[in-house]
Specification:
Elements lengths: L7 E3 L4 E6 L12 H7 L8 H6 L3 H22 L6 E5 L13 H10 L2 E6 L6 H13 L3 E7 L4 H9 L3 E4 L1 H5 L5 H17 L2 E4 L5 H9 L4 E3 L33 H5 L6 E4 H17 L5 E6 L7 H12 L3 E6 L10 E5 L10 E6 L4 E8 L12 E7 L2 H12 L9
Parallel strand pairs: 2-3, 3-4, 4-5, 5-6, 6-7, 7-8, 10-11, 11-12
Antiparallel strand pairs: 1-2, 1-8, 9-15, 10-13, 13-14, 14-15
Helix pairs in contact: 3-4
């Protein structure tokens, strides 16, 4: 069996890319069976869903790399260097190394092809590995697409973190027959992000003229679905769109700590510890009592008092479905279920700062404090902090990026 394709088209109807994706067997497994037979015996072959359910992360990654390599090999053989090639991969795979015997094909493809790496958002449990893979893809001149946006609420938050070049609305959004608050929420969040960054919006699941009109009405400039063509062999000629896919400017990665990321771009104030605690509670309440926050990260210096109120607050925030992580150099084991505790070494510069960062679809805020060195060392005086409070989404995300690197895979809630 050869590699099968479907088309992605722009508003004018021209092809803007060809996706070569892994699918479950009952919906068509779009890859080259000779690669699968070579790598996996028939007795051991499992679907992605079964492998994931069984906890066989090695099998999921293996299948992902095999399928991606098959797609690359077919496209290289077809001689289509200018046509964007969308390759769909699981976030967990992006934290693994490509098998050595597949590396030559993958490295050649990244050099010669116009690759768009599609990140599926079903489970994003290792943000650090995900961001490293996104950075590596962009360094190789690949674009990044966030797939199936709208299936999982976490994808709305990760949209700003990943900063994709293409945002793909799930087919359920495109094909919904009746408007709903949840659907409109996703559409507005995607359009807001696209306007902020310049990303392209693509609607999946366009199978009828009505779906196409819906996609256009939602502001999408790209479409994907059987209305434009069923899966089939690679064609000899592709009518490529004159519209180039965008390249979104990624966030800078130079800062080591949240305070370093924002101090030059935001107003810095001086505050005492009681004032700082009051403002910290203000942002925590957003995550605790509203639906505006999908993620909250906090850093606690060694001098912070870890009391029951802090523990209960962060535990309740996690129980509301917010991605909750606490960073610190002191023992953090007393936090409740769902709170990701990230240990820091005492010499880590992040460990000296007090930070609360919260991000949602429309809301983003960061309160970041760095201690002021006393004028007279050894003198007994109330501690002071340089403090930045910002609601600038760009600055908030830049600060957030500095906290992803030390994170291990996240706890399954």
């Amino acid at each position: 069996m050869g590699v099968s394709i479907t088309y992605r088209v722009d508003r004018a109807g021209s092809s803007c890319g060809i996706p070569l994706q892994e699918r479950e067997p009952d919906s068509g497994f779009w890859t080259d069976s000779t690669w699968l037979e070579h790598r996996i015996s028939p007795a051991d072959r499992v679907s992605f869903t079964k492998a994931r359910s069984a906890g066989r992360h090695d099998a999921v990654a293996e299948l992902d790399w095999v399928c991606a390599t098959a797609a690359f090999a077919a496209f290289l053989d077809a001689g289509r260097p200018g046509v964007p090639l969308f390759v769909n991969m699981d976030p967990g795979t992006l934290g693994t190394s490509c098998p050595p015997d597949l590396s030559p094909v993958n490295e050649r493809a990244l050099r010669e092809l116009n690759v768009v790496l599609e990140i599926t958002e079903r489970v994003i449990d290792n943000p650090a590995a995900l961001l490293r893979s996104v950075v590596a893809a962009r360094q190789a001149r690949s674009r990044v697409a966030l797939d199936d946006v709208g299936v999982n609420p976490a994808s709305i938050s990760m949209m700003s973190v990943v900063c994709p070049d293409v945002i793909k609305l799930d087919r359920g959004i495109t094909q919904s027959r009746t408007p709903s608050w949840a659907r409109n929420y996703v559409i507005n969040a995607v359009l807001s992000e696209a306007q902020l960054t310049g990303a392209a919006v693509l609607c999946e699941g366009i199978e009828t003229p009505e779906h196409l009109e819906t996609a256009r009405a939602m502001g999408a400039t790209l479409g994907q679905g059987w209305l434009f063509g069923r899966p089939g062999p690679l064609p000899q000629v592709v009518d490529v769109s004159a519209r180039l896919l965008p390249r979104v400017k990624p966030y800078p990665e130079a800062a080591r700590t949240p305070f370093e990321a924002v101090r030059a771009e935001a107003r810095v104030s001086r505050m005492t510890l009681p004032m700082l605690a009051s403002m910290t509670g203000m942002l925590e309440d957003v995550a605790l009592h509203t639906d505006a926050a999908h993620l909250l990260f906090a850093t606690l210096p060694a001098t912070a008092q870890l009391d029951d109120e802090t523990r209960l607050t962060y535990t309740h925030i996690a129980q509301r479905g917010v991605i909750m992580a606490v960073f610190g150099s002191q023992p953090l084991s007393f936090f409740g279920a769902g709170v990701q505790a990230v240990p820091l070494s005492q010499d880590d510069p992040v460990a000296a700062e007090r930070t609360v960062i919260t991000v949602g679809s429309y809301f983003a805020a960061a309160l970041i404090a760095s201690p002021v060195e006393p004028d007279c060392p050894g003198a007994v005086e109330p501690p002071l902090y340089y403090v930045v409070l910002t609601y600038d989404r760009k600055l908030v995300i830049e600060a957030l990026h500095t906290l992803f690197d030390p994170m291990p895979p996240m706890i399954a809630q």
